[in-house]
Amino acid sequence: MTCPCNNKIKCPCTYSCPKRGKCCDCVAYHVGSGGFPACFFSKSAEATYDRGYAALKKDRES
Questions:
Q1: Quick one: how far is CA 35 from the chain centroid?
Q2: Which pTM does this prediction carry?
């Protein structure tokens, strides 16, 4: 399902994806896959492409 909402600021994700800049679609996709989108992570943690809960927790604790 495609959502009309688009990000009003530059998307921080470094991975080329058709959902890039379409925040509603991106969040729905990642949450549905058991992970989180790049914009939830710091720039250095985002670059690892690990979108799991443990990676997010570790990133937020540092």
A1: 8
A2: 0.72
